[in-house]
What we know:
Elements: E1 2-12, E2 15-23, E3 30-38
Antiparallel strand pairs: 1-2, 2-3
Amino acid sequence: LCLTSYLLLRLNPALVVAILFVGSLALPAVPILITVVGLRRGHFDRFLPNLRGVDLTKADLSGIDLRGADLKQAQLAGANLNGANLVGVTLERANLQWVSLEGASLSGANLAGADLSAANLIRATLTGANLRAASLAHADLRGTNLHEANLNQAGWRQALIDETTEVAEKWRLV
């Protein structure tokens, strides 16, 4: 299955609902996720299902709000999640190769064992995220905030970092 489309419905000036449709060549698209995206003054009501193992390869989900969603072992290779709100999301052992997370918020996210090879993480916020044993090989981490992130056993081979990459002193590369 793969994401075929998503629909945003503005029910009134303060309430927006997102519906994700999933389908394949053999099956018609069916709604799998109905969530309240936003309420005025920052109050959110969440109805996120278990999205473990969902295949969203190459999906355009830029700007989507999936706070707290369970995307363990999800397939998101090549997806566009620029500016997405993924605070507290579970992406444990997810395939995030070539994903674009530019400017995304992933504070407190669980990315343990995730494959972020060649990912675009420019200006992403991963404060307090769990990246234990994650692969960051060839990832672009310029301007990324990794303060208080767990980077134990994370693979950094040929990751692109510079003076704008914020990381705790104990993780600084010599």
